[in-house]
Amino acid sequence: MPGRKPYYLTTPIYYVNDKPHIGHAYTTLACDVLARFKRLDGFDVHFLTGTDEHGQKVEKSAQAAGIDPQSFTDEVSQNFRDLAKAMNFSNDDFIRTTEERHTRSCQALWREIETRGHIYLGSYAGWYSVRDEAFWSEDDLSTGPNGEKLAPTGAPVEWVEEPSYFFRLSAWEKPLLEYYERNPDCVAPASRRNEVISFVKSGLQDLSVSRTSFGWGIPVPGDPKHIMYVWLDALTNYITAVGYPDVSGAYARYWPADLHMVGKDILRFHAVYWPAFLMAAGLEPPKRVFAHGWWTNEGQKISKSLGNVIDPLRLIERYGLDQVRYFLLREVPFGNDGDFSHRAMVNRMNGELANDLGNLAQRVLSMIAKNCGAAVPRRGRLTDEDQALLDAAAAILPKARDLMDRQLFHEVLETVWQVVRAANGYVDRQAPWALRKTDPERMENVLYVLVEALRHIAILMQPVVPNSAARLLDQLGVSGDQRTFAHLTGANALSPGAPLPKPEGVFPRYVEAEEGAA
Ligand code: ME8
């Protein structure tokens, strides 16, 4: 699309050994909000998510389920597509690593790296964790309660000894450090960037990139007894999806990616191995990797064995989709760890969505329905206070742009909320219900200022609460083609006299079931 700036962002591709849970929903949600924001801001967005279907971990899960890995991955991958639908994710593509386009891309990347002299054949003897799909050195390990060896993640490890191809990672220490140096924003938040830099400075060992002891994966070109290391396979998805090895069309437009969003658990793979693989193939490393924090459930680590895995579909059923979307990005400063609790969820949805914003809209729109002939009120001369509220609403966008580019979602929402709170203060001070008798003209003016402020708020909230914001915009009489950020100007302000539909509440309250009731 000529004229529009490209913006390419990706989620991790999720392992299909398990059903999607709140952590997966969280990462993709953050990307979805950013993708929607950028589209409304005029960018040509390419938003990718998908599933990571090869490797020993998936092979084992398929065996445990008693089916062949392909049927197993077909089934579980579908759960992630269903989640995307249920969460209203707007991804432009969904990649599966078992697709033909991906095999072609991985083998081409391998050949490129090998031709340039960065892959050699050797043999691996060391520890491997299937759960992490990662190699660990002796120094990394600790001893578990039964004397068993454990990876730093707590995962069990096994001793592996087999022929293996190696990637000459040790040679990429200096180029990687230069890459971080030249691109101060390429790893975020800053604390994570420092961790990555000290990891690389502590010295890099060559990385085993093929295995011969199992079969579920992409064969090494020219030596099909070897299966590519699942992380080399998985990371390559980001270029497969833009057409690699064809570097003309979508690749030329979208690569390097503007953002890889990941959880902190997989930062090393994205901020160290991936840029090294790319540079070794003569390709550009990504512009930015953001590692967000970890969710716990009512203070406890989320794990299958504790039986406290949070199913996003249940949350949607209980609290409502937009409520869940809002909560996840509002509750926790993005980048930090967060805790999911019923109480925190209800506080946010009732206190902020239902009270602050929902009541404001409902109050203003029902006064208009009753007192202004169900049409946009007339606009008179603006007082300083009127102007101040309209200026505050107009000032959200430039701030939100900057915050979104730094993935500070909670601060974007706080910026919008400052105006929501200001509008509530304004309505209380102006008391349009009292003006109805004393100065109906002024009442119309006040209500006009409020609906115009609401128009800004609703347009800006679309990325986070798309369905509710659309309903609010319907009630403000804003047509579907007037809802982008380009419409956040005075020239597109609501037209006095335009008819408005009957108002109805947009953000329901959560009502606790009676004590003792089911
Ligand atoms: O690692 N809190 O896939 P995966 C927050 N296939 N985020 C969480 C979370 C939690 N409790 N649990 C999971 C893989 N996540 C590889 C990725 S990419 C080329 C390959 C999110 O299914 C978070 O984004 O184990 C984390 O990084 C990701 O799920 C791990 O998903």
Overview of this protein structure:
With 518 residues, this protein is an alpha/beta fold. The protein has a domain at 342-492: Isoleucyl-tRNA Synthetase, Domain 1 (Orthogonal Bundle). Helix content is 47%, strand content 16%. It is built from 19 helices and 18 strands. Strands 3-2-1-14-15-9 form a 6-stranded parallel beta sheet, with helices on both faces. Strands 5-4-8-10 form a 4-stranded antiparallel beta sheet, with helices on one face. The radius of gyration is 26 Å and the shape is elongated. The model has no long low-confidence stretch (mean pLDDT 95). Bound molecules: ligand ME8. Ligand ME8 is lined by residues 12-15, 23-24, 26-27, 52, 234-235, 237, 262-263, 265-266, 294-295, 302.
